[in-house]
Every structure is written in C-alpha cells, then in structure tokens.
Amino acid sequence: MSVTNQLRGKYNYSFSSRLRKRIKCQLRALLTSKAKRYEFAMLGVQARLAKNPPLTSSELLRNRKTKRDELKKEVIDHYGAKCKCCGERNFGFLTLDHINGGGRTHRQRVGNNLYRWIRKNNFPGILQILCWNCNGSKGAYGVCAHKWGVP
C-alpha cells in the first residue's frame, strides 16, 4: 500500500489547520524520500482542485467584472451616489473626478486600479462624483456646462 493510500485512509481532509500542521510534522518522518514528499503534496493539490475546480476564461472574466463593479458601487455610494453638479443618479453615468484636477498624474502614480487605491486609502477627500457629461465638460473647459447657465 502506498503512502498516499495510507494517508487517505487514515486522515480526512476536513480537519483544522492546527491539526493539519501537527499531522504534517508527524508524517515528515514517514516522508523521507523526495518522491514520497511530492506524492503527499499532490494529495493536497488534488483535494483543492476537487473542491474548487478551475474556472473557464469566460467565468474568470465574469468574476473580475462583478468584483470590479461591486468595488465601483462601493466607492460611488461612499461619495454620495449622485453627480455633484447636475444631480444625475444613474450608476452607469457616474464617474470619479479629481476636485482640483491632476487626475492624469494621480492615475499614473496610483496605477490602473484607482477604486482599490481609494478604498485602501480610506476614501480621500480629493475626489467627487460627477456624471460623464459634467466631467468631460470640466476637463475640456475647466468648468461644467451647468455652471455657465447653458441648458
């Protein structure tokens, strides 16, 4: 009987981490050869893969998009969930704006994931929520079209 079959029969994989550490320490004496250690390590990999099968690429993309949207919603909800200028509340139209400008240099410093940086840094006060129209107008002309009095 191989070492893996002995271990499979003797130990169930649903035990606590402290017990798992103790068992590993006790089994080190049994697992003297490199092949036996590798075989034991692969038991854990097989158990994890059986419990959590690998995701397809479409499932991975869907999970990433879901997490990204949840993080964006958390950030937008924290900053008020409406455009500071015109009051737009549709989530699809809302975006972040740097109050005093400098968004490009800030994004270069922070990297791609601005929303994660915001949460990590406790939602700093240098940002506000604007809709895409107000944000684009502010970026192009320095002030939102609503401030000019344009309908």
In short:
The chain has 151 residues and is mainly alpha-helical. It is 58% helix and 7% strand.
Q: Can you put this structure into words, describing what you see?
A:
This protein is mainly α. It has two domains: 3-51, no CATH class; 62-143, His-Me finger endonuclease fold. It is built from eight helices and two strands. Strands 1-2 form a two-stranded antiparallel ribbon. The radius of gyration is 27 Å and the shape is elongated. The model has no long low-confidence stretch (mean pLDDT 80).
- Using only C-alpha atoms, the radius of gyration works out to 27 Å
Percent range for β-strand residues = 5-15%
- Spatial strand sequence of the major β-sheet: 1-2
Question: Total helix count?
Answer: 8
Gross geometry: elongated
Unreliable sequence segments? none
Examine the coordinates and then state which fold CATH places here, giving the name of the CATH topology of the largest domain: His-Me finger endonuclease fold
What is the second-level CATH architecture of the largest domain? 3-Layer(aba) Sandwich
- Average pLDDT confidence is 80
CATH class of the largest domain: Alpha Beta
**Helix coverage percent:** 55-70%
Distance between the termini: 83 Å
Q: Major sheet, described briefly?
A: 2 strands, antiparallel
Number of separate strands: 2
Number of domains: 2
* Secondary-structure-derived class: mainly alpha
Taken in chain order, the helices and strands follow as: HHHHEHHEHH
List the helices and strands and how they pair.
Layout: H1 3-10, H2 17-27, H3 34-51, H4 57-78, E1 94-98, H5 103-110, H6 114-120, E2 127-131, H7 132-141, H8 145-148
Antiparallel strand pairs: 1-2
Helix pairs in contact: 4-6
